[in-house]
Design brief:
Blueprint: E1 2-3, E2 6-9, E3 13-15, E4 20-21, E5 27-28, E6 32-35, E7 38-41, E8 45-47, E9 50-51, E10 57-60, E11 63-66, E12 71-73, E13 76-77, E14 87-89, E15 96-99, E16 104-106, E17 109-110, E18 124-126, E19 130-133, E20 138-140, E21 153-155, E22 160-163, E23 167-169, E24 179-181, E25 185-188, E26 193-195, E27 202-204, E28 209-214, E29 217-219, E30 231-233, E31 239-245, E32 251-252
Parallel strand pairs: 1-6, 2-7, 3-8, 6-10, 7-11, 8-12, 9-13, 10-14, 11-15, 12-16, 13-17, 14-18, 15-19, 16-20, 18-21, 19-22, 20-23, 21-24, 22-25, 23-26, 24-27, 25-28, 26-29, 27-30, 28-31, 29-32
Antiparallel strand pairs: 4-5
C-alpha cells in the first residue's frame, strides 16, 4: 500500500495476495494499491493476485510506471462490476499509468459480478485517468467476463488512452476484444498495432472519440462468427485522422 510515498520494484514477485476492503465492502488493489503516491516498476512480476477492482494494481490519485520487462500477469478481478483485472486507473485525481519498453500486461481475467456480467477491462480499466502505452509494450491474452467489454483495455467517460506504440493482441471480450472505448478519448499514434482480438479490435461507443495518426494498424481481429471485425463504430461514431498517416502498410478495417 503506497500512500504519498514511492515504491521502486526492480525484481522478484508480488504474488498471491488479496486486495483490501474499502468502505463499500469491495476489495481494491490485489497486489499493489497506489494512493496519491508513486509506483515505479523497473522489473519483476505482479502475479496471482485478486481484488474486486484492480486485481494486480489499483491506482487512486497516483502514478504507476512500468519499464524494461516488468509484467502484470495472471491476476483476477472476481466480484466487481467494473473490474480491471490487471490494472485499474481510478481517475480520482491526476492518475497516470504508463507502460514503456517491453513491459507487459498479460493473461489477466475480469470475472465480473456473481452473475458473470459487467467484468470490464481484462487487462486495463481506465476510469477518468490517463493510460500511456509506449515503445514495445504489450497488452495480450487478457479476458473480460462473458457479457462484458474491453478484453485488453476499457476506457470509460473522462478517461484517456494514448497508444503511442506497442501491441494489443489475442485478448477476448463480448465486445471490444482489444479496446472498448465507452467514452473518453482513445488516441492511436506511431506504429501501434491492434491484432488478433475477439470480439472486434476496437469498439467505439457512447461519447468516445477515436483518433489515429502516424502508422497505426488494426487488422486480423474477428467477431463472434470468426469474420473480420477490426474497428466497430456504433451509431454515429467516427474515426478522426488527427495527423499524417506515415506508414507504408497502414490498414484499419471499419465496420
Amino acid at each position: 500500500y503506497v500512500s504519498g510515498g514511492t515504491l521502486n520494484l526492480y525484481r522478484g514477485q508480488i504474488a498471491n495476495s488479496t486486495g483490501q476492503k474499502g468502505a463499500d465492502s469491495n476489495k481494491y488493489g490485489g497486489g499493489v494499491y497506489v494512493n496519491n503516491g508513486f509506483f515505479n516498476m523497473y522489473g519483476g512480476t505482479i502475479t496471482g493476485n485478486d481484488a474486486d477492482y484492480g486485481g494486480g494494481v489499483y491506482v487512486n490519485g497516483g502514478t504507476f510506471e512500468m519499464h524494461n520487462n516488468a509484467s502484470v500477469t495472471g491476476n483476477t478481478a472476481t466480484n466487481g462490476t467494473l473490474n480491471g483485472a490487471g490494472v485499474y486507473v481510478s481517475g480520482s485525481g491526476n492518475d497516470t499509468f504508463t507502460m514503456n519498453d517491453n513491459a507487459s500486461v498479460t493473461g489477466n481475467t475480469a470475472k465480473g459480478d456473481k452473475t458473470g456480467d459487467n467484468g470490464h477491462g481484462g487487462g486495463v480499466y481506465v476510469d477518468s485517468g490517463t493510460f500511456n502505452m509506449n515503445g514495445s509494450a504489450s497488452v495480450t491474452k487478457n479476458n473480460a467476463a462473458a457479457q462484458s467489454y474491453g478484453g485488453g483495455v476499457f476506457v470509460k467517460n473522462g478517461g484517456t488512452f494514448n497508444m503511442n506504440g506497442g501491441a494489443i493482441s489475442e485478448n477476448r471480450a463480448n465486445q471490444g476484444g482489444g479496446v472498448y472505448a465507452w467514452g473518453g478519448t482513445f488516441n492511436m499514434n506511431g506504429n501501434a498495432s491492434i491484432t488478433s482480438n475477439t470480439v472486434n479490435g476496437v469498439y467505439v461507443h457512447n461519447n468516445a472519440t477515436f483518433t489515429v495518426s502516424g502508422s497505426p494498424t488494426v487488422t486480423g481481429n474477428k467477431n463472434a462468427s470468426d469474420a473480420a471485425s477490426n474497428v466497430f463504430l456504433a451509431g454515429s461514431k467516427t474515426i478522426t485522422i488527427g495527423g499524417e498517416l506515415t506508414g507504408s502498410l497502414n490498414s484499419i478495417g471499419v465496420t
